[in-house]
Design goal:
2 copies of one chain form a homodimer.
Chain A (H helix, E strand, L loop, with lengths): L11 H8 L5 E2 H11 L8 H13 L3 E7 L5 E7 L1 H27 L1
Antiparallel strand pairs in A: 1-3, 2-3
Chain A binds a DNA duplex through helix 2, helix 3 and strand 3.
DNA sequence: ATGTATGCATAGATTATCTATGGATAGAAA
DNA sequence: TTTCTATCCATAGATAATCTATGCATACAT
């Protein structure tokens, strides 16, 4: 079994927080949003997504409420908290710094 | 104890292969090169580096020989193999595709 | 009635990384 | 000559993140 890696490890929290920036979404919607926005390149497996959402809940970056979807289904909608919005800023800047650093290595070496 | 993460997980092999692109290096030299090229942003711990080198050896991406350094020390010098050079190309392009995809999500969301 | 897409979630395995060590030697400093 | 610092190897154990594989439930279309 080859190791595929649908995702660059360490980026999932950032991706999730980003999709919640504009509006609350349920888990399935988050996964679809990431897939769609990335032009099908990034796929978030459910076994990665839900544990990640638990982590985010525990740390208070998001909160969750049961609501009805447009298709008349019960679903947990996740919303960015104020702390989560702040955290998003932190993680985004850390990520960009990392990427820039990696870029320098890849380019100069 | 806060989790720091000196590195973006999943990028170490690519970084190592890249530093070996021009010339063979020993482990310590690889770590220094990555640190220096990244302007001190990226730090490769020895506990990450040596296991990674073992993986690369096992897969045949690099080969190793004991030699003397300029400072008169014995050290294992790692060299990219032909397969390793090819692998570097693959990983580089996968990485760039990932980063581009992540960029789209971060931007459009 | 049956299938398909939607939606939740967990268990277990795997992998990668970090922390914390430990050992050895060259050369400088004291 | 002793001691310190930098250079070099490497492993063990813990931790964390992700994937694979499931399982359950319901709305709606066929």
């Amino acid at each position: 079994m080859a190791k595929k890696n649908d995702l660059l490890p360490g980026t999932l929290d950032l991706l999730i927080l980003t999709t919640l920036k504009r509006a609350p979404l349920h888990g399935y919607g988050i996964a679809l949003a990431i897939k769609r926005l990335s032009d099908e390149v990034l796929t978030v497996e459910e076994g990665s997504l839900y544990p990640a959402l638990q982590r985010l809940l525990l740390q208070g970056w998001v909160k969750a409420e049961w609501k009805m979807t447009e298709t008349n289904r019960r679903a947990r909608f996740y919303t960015l908290t104020a702390a989560g919005r702040k955290q998003l800023g932190v993680e985004l800047s850390e990520f960009q710094q990392m990427i820039a650093a990696i870029g320098r290595v890849l380019q100069d070496a």
